[in-house]
Amino acid sequence: MGRKSDRKKSKKTKGGFREGNDSGTLSKRILQFLDAHYGEEFNAKQIIKRLEIRDAIQKGGVEPALFRLVEAGKISKTPRNYFSSNQDPDFITGTVDYVNPRFAFVIPDDPAATIGDILVKEADLKQALDGDKVRVMVFPLKGKTGRTEGRVLEILERNRDEFVGRVEISPRFAFVVPDFKKMHKDIFVHRGDLMGAEHNEKVIVKLTEWREDDKNPTGKVIRVLGKAGLHEVEIHSIMAEFGLPFEYPKEADEEANAIPEKISSNEIKARKDFRDVLTFTIDPVDAKDFDDAISYRELENGNLEIGVHIADVTHYVKQKTALEKEAYNRATSVYLVDRTIPMLPERLSNGLCSLRPNEDKLTFACVFEMDRNARVVNHWIGRTIIHSNRRYAYEEAQECIDTQSGDYFQELTLLNELAKKIRKQRFDKGAVNFETVEVKFKLDEKGTPLGLFVKERKDIHKLIEEFMLLANKYVAEFIFRKNQGADTFVYRTHDSPDLDRLETFSGFAKRFGHQMDVTNVQKISAALNKLMDEIQGKPEQNVLEQLAIRSMAKAKYTTEPKGHFGLAFQHYTHFTSPIRRYPDMMVHRLLEHYLEGGKSQDAEPWEQKCVHSSEREKRAADAERASIKYKQVEYMSLAEQKDYEGIVSGVTEWGVFVEITETKCEGMIRVQDMDDDYYEFDERNMRLIGTRSKKMITLGDKVVVRVVNTDIDRRTIDLEFADNDRKKSRPRAFN
After folding, report:
1. Which residues neighbour 412 within 8 Å (Cβ) at sequence distance 6 or greater?
2. Which element (helix H / strand E) includes 297?
3. Where are the annotated segments for Disordered (predicted)?
4. What is the SS3 assignment for 87?
5. From CA 144, how far away is CA 34, in angstroms rounded?
6. Which residues contact 379 (CB under 8 A, 6 or more apart)?
7. pLDDT, tens only, 449-477
């Protein structure tokens, strides 16, 4: 029989400590607690309570441990015997991403400042809202989540102080419930500040006060949009939500209207005259702003001269004018489901600058001399004047090619053949073929969706695309080679993809039955193109295309002369759409400057404009998506009640996203409504697993669903699995 130990066994207490633990362990826990609460002061009783120490011996050891830590210089003590950490925290500035009501992340301005984003709990946000620029104190130790945590010390710049939302009125007060999903606070409004808004109407509310102890901000209604659910009201709500303008400033409009239409003889002499050369535009059937035209003629040596002529917007929009200021502020036209919010006033966008047929128009051009194999033999860049012979809608031009009849069908056919060769050359050099699905709606006069269809990309769309890409490429390369990249210019760049994200994406593709090798860096483009070809016309096409795009870096505007991975171009810019994109106006201005022999411009102001333009581009894309989502939700609310086939397009801990194959609309099945089992989220493999049945719901699964609810305010579609009618005898797993 073994000898009994003389050492007493330690006994576990309710507080989670063991009697007999030495004072060093207690001191360590106290120090960790104070370091994790940097900037706060606690007395011994508060520390005992926060550490949940219940054992009398442990309680008695707290104060001596605190004084030992003070003597060691690890913590500080006030005259009132309050203690705090001596750790030196980091201070960074960043942008708030307010992901949910419980916490936000702060994205550092300098990515090297911390490892990853900083988690900030709601109580430590100091009333910062999504998109705000803030100064953050980073805690020395990571929190329980294993993430770097911090506290907002100061709001440096509010991202926005106006929100759109729905009014809820009670007898004594009112609140505005914001539409914006990342605004997690309702806004209190005094009854006298409602501006006549009635219960359940949509309004724009401006924040006026947010006292430190108040849970909710206070605001006043500055615009009543109308009854929630009406088409015009909801579109105006989306415009207000994303800060899109409702009208053009009076001063800018007056400037536009004062510009003379007549083109002077001196202006014509200063340009290459293409008015006698066959020229035409090809645009959507409902377009009014024609900013690009193609000229065509055969040369005596048997080669072809193809001119890409772009509206000369900067001839009309001068710097330091109200027009210029507003164009910069908007930075892009925005295309919602039922309207365009133009960058330029209608007088310019649809009039003076629009390359309408049978009118003399001023243009900036990139003119190519090509052989019959689409090889560029020579090119010229400069200002031109044109006279368009024909305005085509895409459908008309495609019909000319398909039927081999109609105006200029032979020229269109030859251009199409050239475009196909240019496209092949591009893909042979490593360009990636992303053919994203574009959803369009047929709307009645009230804006109600009557039908939904996927826009088809035909040869004629690709023809225009290839010649615009070619012009953009040659303009960028022309400036870069002029002075070996030393001249400041505006480039459109696209970084190579992150291999870890691509590896994750290839795993997703594999679940759909598609193999994709991402181990060879040199062949990533080829692997992506092979996959894109395989999924054409298949139910998973849209899901995989969207996932592929998300795994890529984001294209942006910058003065740094980097390449464009997706297009496989060493240098690329945006030159071809100055009516609707401010960066193209920047390019035209710099191009003119350098063509006239000007020296390199200071890069910093142009880089700031690039950053602004990239931000405005994202805002426009978000607004466009929101308007499409709104119409998708409305369409599904009116659609036939039936079972729909779909594909699992996303899996989270709170639900499963499903894209309905027939309508391309995405909805969610909430975990709390899945009562056939208790499901746990496997984040690494992006799947839910039933704890009892081991049933797995994985990205890419083909499922059958039905619509159970639509919410236009939140722009959400709630779904359930179609086999959910079976009654379960077992109680629900979630409440």
Report:
1. 397, 400, 401, 460, 463
2. strand 292-298
3. 1-21
4. coil
5. 14
6. 366, 367, 368, 369, 474
7. 988 888 888 999 999 999 999 999 999 99
CB 223 within 8 A of CB 188: no
**Spatial separation of the C-alpha atoms in residues 395 and 403, rounded to whole Å:** 12
**Residue 427 near residue 319, CB atoms below 8 Å:** no
Q: Which residue in the block uniquely carries the two structure tokens 């606690």?
A: 42
Q: How does strand 162-169 pair with strand 201-209?
A: antiparallel
| CA 331 – CA 594 distance, rounded (Å) | 23
Q: Vertex 439, ends 434 and 442: CA angle to 5°?
A: 155
Q: Residue 154 to residues 90, 109, 132, 305, 599: CA-CA distances in angstroms?
A: 14, 15, 10, 60, 42
First to last CA, the chain: 55
Question: Please, what's the b/e burial string for 131-146 (b: 16 or more CB within 10 A of its CB; e: otherwise)?
Answer: bbbbbbbbbbbeeeee
The helix-helix angle for 394-403 and 459-482 (nearest 10°) equals 110
Instruction: Measure the CA–CA gap between 142 and 342, rounded to whole angstroms.
Output: 47
Q: List the one residue out of 225, 263, 252 whose CA is nearest residue 241.
A: 225
pLDDT of residue 316 exceeding 80, the answer is yes
57-92 pLDDT, tens digit per residue, is 888 899 999 999 999 888 999 999 999 988 777 788
Question: Which DSSP category does 348 fall into?
Answer: I
Closest Cα partner for 391 from 502, 264, 289, 515? 289
402: helix, coil or strand? helix
Task: Report the DSSP beta bridge partners of residue 581.
Answer: 332
The rounded distance, in Å, linking the Cα atoms of 47 and 34 is 9
H helices within 516-658, ranges in order?
524-535, 541-551, 582-595, 603-638
Mean predicted lDDT score pLDDT of the chain: 89
Question: Coil, strand or helix: which one is 432?
Answer: coil
Tokens of 344: 């330029």
Predicted structure pTM score:
0.81
- Residue 111 pLDDT class (50, 70, 90 cuts): confident
Q: How far apart are CA 47 and CA 416, in angstroms?
A: 77
Question: Range with the lowest mean pLDDT among 227-241, 358-372, 469-483, 534-548?
Answer: 534-548
Rounded to the nearest 10 degrees, how much is the dihedral formed by the CA atoms of 659, 662, 663, 664?
Answer: 40
> How big is the chain by its Cα radius of gyration, in Å?
31
For residue range 145-190, what is the model confidence (pLDDT) as tens digits? 678 888 898 999 999 999 999 999 988 889 999 988 889 999 999 9
Instruction: Decide the pairing of beta strands 390-393 and 278-283.
Output: parallel
With b meaning 16 or more CB within 10 Å and e meaning fewer, what string describes 607-619?
A: bebbebbbebbeb
Sheet architecture: strand order including 376-387: 272-273, 376-387, 360-370, 304-311, 292-298, 278-283, 390-393
Residue 653: which of 675, 692, 680, 689 has the closest Cα?
Answer: 680
Q: How far apart are CA 212 and CA 209, in angstroms?
A: 10
Residue 481 structure tokens: 């080679």
Question: What DSSP element (H or E) covers 226?
Answer: strand 218-227
Segments in 483-516 forming alpha helices (H): 499-511
165 alpha carbon, distance to own chain's centre: 22
Structure tokens at 15: 């507080």
In what helix (H) or strand (E) does residue 379 lie, and over which residues does it extend? strand 376-387
DSSP helix/strand/coil, 520: coil
The model's pLDDT over 668-692, given as tens digits with 9 standing for 90+, comes to 999 988 988 899 998 777 789 999 9
- Indicate the DSSP class of residue 233: H
